[in-house]
Amino acid sequence: MNNTGDARARVVLSLRATPKGALHYDRGAPAVPAASPEWHASPSDWTCVLEEVTSEMDRAKAQSLARLTRDWQRVLSLSGRSDELEVTLGPWPPTTPTPGPRSDPPSVQDEVQKSTPPAPVAARRKSSPRLSPVPRTGSPLYGWTSPVDQQLRQAERARQVDRDRVVMAHRQRVAQVQVAFDQASRHQYQAQSETRMADLARKTQERLRVEAEAEAERAAETRRLAVARQEAEDKRRRQVQAQMEAAEADEKVAQAEKAEKAEKAQAAFQAFRSECQKWVELILKAEKALQAAAAPVQAQSPALAPFLAQRKQDLPQLKQFLQTGTLPSPATLSQARDSHAQLERLLRDLSVASQQFQKEQAEAQAEAQAEAARPPALVPKTPPPPTVSAPPPVPVVVSIEPQSRPTPTAPATPSSATSQLAREISASNRAKFDALVTFKANWLDHLRAFMSDPAHKSFRFSCQKAVNTPVNALNANSSSHLRQKLDHLQALLRGQGLEVTGQAFNASIHPMGIPFCKYILAKKLVDQGSDVISAKPDAAFGVAQVIVSLWAEFGDFGQLILATAYEVCPYLVPYHKQKPPQQDSTAYYQSLGYQLTNEGSLEKQDLYVKRMAGIARLYAAVTITALPKDQLGQADHPHGVGYAWCWLSSELNLNPVNDVTATLIQVILEVSGHKLAEMFGKMFLKLVVTLSRRYLPLIKKATIEGSGGPVERLETTLSKIMSTGQVEPPPGLLSLGFI
């Protein structure tokens, strides 16, 4: 306790040394000298001072208790007592803390305030802590405890009880937290286990699904390979069948050629036999004629007798050939051939001489009779015409001398004109071509006054807009678009009202309106072949669908289409025009479809062939394009695939033309070949074989060096058709009922 008093004394001395002045602890005495007005003016300073004193005393008590505790433990250790004895804070018996009511653990703010060192006095003046009574100090006595110490011990015991309660509550809370943590851990583990099991099940299902898909893909691949193998086998069988059929066809062709050669040989043999028979008859007849002729007649043919004597030497061999068929010696045959014409001329001379002799005899006889019958005084000025008996018949013999060709300036005989026509065009195609040319010429004559009338210029312009607008937008990208353009053109040609450039229009308001629209529409559609389809081949079928539909409804429109196409490309007839001697070269090439450039020269050959191919592709597309759904069963196809067959057959009978023939045959086979094969079957394959083996060499012969591209493409196409026996449908072909 002396230490405690010393501490108090030090505190008091330190307080007295402060600037605030001396402090007095006697009751009734002023805490601050009267001479210091600051203390009276600031009552809150008392609180600060008391708080500081109380804190200092608490620290001193704590230090004292710590020293006492150490001393007591040392005494206990020296006396041999147990360390478990409770340390008392004074001479009274130890008290056992009794658990009080449960209090909450100290808050974080209280813990912070406890751990924070006391602030300086100047800083603590701003706060107003609760005032604690200032303990009074007395003189320390042995065994006596001051009330302050008792309060401290009670407060310590209360704090110990609170700490125990807090510890107990903390332990309970920790136990609860541990239980909750264990439960949460179990739940989490169970959830994780369930998640893992679900993931495992999902992965298993995914793996099974992937395996099933892989198995399905393998099965599909196996089936596809089986189908591919079957298709390859079928294709190989078809190829073998086609090769067998081709070989059979070749064999038949060879047999036919052999039979034809045998027939020709037999015919030649029979002709030679007939000729030998004629030779024998001619020699015998000449001998009889010579014997029957009078001496004056024989005198006019002095070479006949020796020549006839020489020819009579060949009679035994010729008669033996006629009886047994054994050919005479080559010398005899050569002499017979050489002497045939000469003997015929000699017989002709003998016949003429005989006729002349008979005529002279008849004239002399008639004159003698007239002279005897007339009166003596009458003398006729001219004798009457004598009666001439018919000469003996002369056998018709074909001369073996070559005949000279007619010069170009000479007029063509009927036989030469027919041969020239056969080189250009067949008779039936010529009649068809002339009929179409006449039809179009009459159509234009009918429109000429209307087309030249300035008063109808605006109406003609509206007609052209009504035609050009839908035709320029023609394409087969969608059926609805193509149907819309076709409906527009059908309404135009039917004379129905429609809208043109935002205004109502009807072509039938003028009598020449619809014919004019048909004419410009036919020309515009044919121009699509040379301008558009030549660069974009797939566009042919959209234009062909419009042509077929309008042609089935308006027959005269179809005739205009054909006439315009034949005029632009006469090879579609087919018509291989030959240049007349009096025609200008430029006019001739223009008649073949060549166009003039801006400079006035003819277009290049490759551009011309490309345009002809576009028109031919459009023509072939027309032959295989079906009617629209609304016209099926109501009208027949106006120009079906049979016309493509007729064109190929007619083309084989004409001399080929460089570039053009190969290109057009290639286009026709590419576009309509599958329909021709479907309709004509083996006949089409025979036609292809004929094209490849007989006509293709002629095309190669007519092809100029450096222009072999079309020929090579045609040869490849023919070889493919003969090897496979099939023709693939062309790209862009519209399905049945597309519109």
From TrEMBL:
Coiled coil region boundaries: 202-266
Family: Belongs to the GLE1 family.
Organism placement in taxonomy: Eukaryota, Metazoa, Ecdysozoa, Arthropoda, Crustacea
Annotated segments matching region Disordered: 85-148, 357-423
Organism: Tigriopus californicus (Marine copepod)
Keywords (A to Z) from UniProt: Coiled coil, mRNA transport, Nuclear pore complex, Nucleus, Protein transport, Translocation, Transport
Cellular component annotations (GO), alphabetically ordered: cytoplasm; nuclear pore cytoplasmic filaments
Record's protein name: mRNA export factor GLE1
Pro residues composition bias: residue spans: 91-104, 377-395
